[in-house]
Amino acid sequence: MHESLTVVDGLQYANWDRSIFEQLIAGGVSGVHATIVYHETCRETLLRIGEWNRRFEAYPELIRPVNDMDDIRRAKAEGRVGVFFGAQNCSPIEDDIDLVAIFRRLGLLIMQLTYNNQSLLATGCYEAEDPGITRFGREVIREMNRVGMVIDMSHSGRRSTLEAIDISTRPIVISHANPLFFHDAKRNKSEQELRALADSGGLLGLSTYAMHLPGGDRCTLAEYCDMVARTVDLMGIEHVGVGTDLCQNQPSETLTWMRNGRWSRTLDFGEGSAAQPDWPSQPSWFRGAGDYPNLTAGLVERGFERHEIARIMGENWLDFLTEATRPQSS
């Protein structure tokens, strides 16, 4: 069954090279949302896009850029991987709303309003208080809606997430998180948030990152697929996908940039820890980009029908992004 599916991963931050692309192809992946920003400024984001342009030139037999969702279907037919860009923070637009449209034209399809901390737009999940979406945030949401850039609230606080869902005139995404009922992590989402997301037509990408799983790398595939089933019962089959948050082959120093950027002189890796962490071990059933067939097999074992598995493994992402990234008429 897996070979016939159009598989889309709703988020990865790999240390991209030929071996990763080959693993994605071996795993049957046709589309991947690649993070290009954590704390990068406008110019630095342009450099990241330039780096990807060089990758597209270097590996044309393996990857192709995604301008619309037909490119992912073409990638499936060609045996390649379609890559679309996302930012895990609003730092690329700095304090200039015109940069939203500019980056959308350059292929940035998805942008989080915040990454863990308070931003100019919203509040992150690690802040003690969440006052919600800011004045600038409301304007940026309106502009993202207009140009067809998807709002992502994966790292946001609860009030900010609920307000973004309410303010946006188009469905939003939580690209890589799990339900709070599955594991009590700051980044996982409450049933209130997930119901609001589904009621508004949004999409949740379920994560395989060990910090989002009960027992970390000891979480079993059966437990994970039970979580998928409970989430489908809560939200509806059309609102659930996969966003693995796979950070493959990244050095431990990358965590320093992700967690601390330039905003702190002291190390803070969450939960008050100042120790330099390493990447947590992945569960045995999903250690790398070639392991997507294991997810399909687990969903089969859990009792999902073929059409339901096709939705979860990619078709929901394709349907959602087809509508959500279409610019509105001015």
Structure explained in plain terms:
The chain has one domain (2-324): TIM Barrel, CATH 3.20.20.140. The protein has helices spanning 18-26, 42-58, 70-78, 98-105, 135-147, 158-167, 191-199, 221-235, 253-260, 292-302, 306-324, and strands spanning 7-12, 29-37, 63-65, 81-87, 108-112, 150-152, 173-174, 203-206, 240-242. Helices cover 39% and strands 13% of the residues. The chain starts with 6 loop residues before the first strand and ends in a 6-residue tail after the last helix. α6 (158-167) packs parallel to α7 and α8 (221-235) packs across α10. The chain has 11 helices and 9 strands. The longest helix is centred in the last third of the chain and has 19 residues, at 306-324. Strands 1, 2, 3, 4, 5 and 6 form a 6-stranded parallel sheet that branches. The protein is α/β, with parallel strands linked by helices.
In quaternary terms, these chains amount to single chain
Q: Any idea what the radius of gyration is?
A: 18 Å
Domain module count: 1
Decide which structural class fits the backbone.
Answer: alpha/beta
Give the CA-CA distance, first to last residue.
Answer: 43 Å
Q: Superfamily at the CATH H level? A: Metal-dependent hydrolases
User: What level of helicity do the residues show?
Assistant: 25-40%
Series of secondary-structure elements, N-terminal to C-terminal:
EHEHEHEHEHEHEHEHEHHH
Q: Major sheet, described briefly?
A: 6 strands, parallel
Fraction in beta strands: 5-15%
Q: What is the count of DSSP helices, taking H or I runs of 4+ residues? A: 11
Number of strands: 9
Which overall shape is indicated by the principal axes computed on the Cα atoms? Answer: globular
Average pLDDT taken over every residue: 95
Low-confidence stretches: none
CATH class, please?
Alpha Beta
